[in-house]
Amino acid sequence: xxxxxxxxxxxxxxxxxxxxxxxxxxxxxxxxxxxxxxxxxxxxxxxxxxxxxxxxxxxxxxxxxxxxxxxxxxxxxxxxxxxxxxxxxxxxxxxxxxxxxxxxxxxxxxxxxxxxxxxxxx
Length: 122
Known about the structure:
Elements: H1 2-11, H2 17-27, H3 29-34, E1 55-63, E2 67-74, E3 80-85, H4 90-104, E4 109-112, H5 116-119
Parallel strand pairs: 1-4
Antiparallel strand pairs: 1-2, 2-3
């Protein structure tokens, strides 16, 4: 944004130019693609689980076309299981998770954007 203002000042100048340029750049999609990246979240270290598939991370990602990917990662081996979902209601997600559990066993407790109490063994 600073370079854009400097380049404009070489050619033109008008009242409140700085504010208008800032507002334009903040709403300009191509400008956002080439602009500075937002700060990434710091990496959190986790303890290594004692057994494979004893601790998993789960996330649901939306992809183009209205589909979703259910991503289940084993925190022991870092092995990802990726399942394409057409619907994200409870029955479809449960079926996909059951399929993963049938293959690898039931984990102690998953991590991610899930109500952990629903998936943890008590």
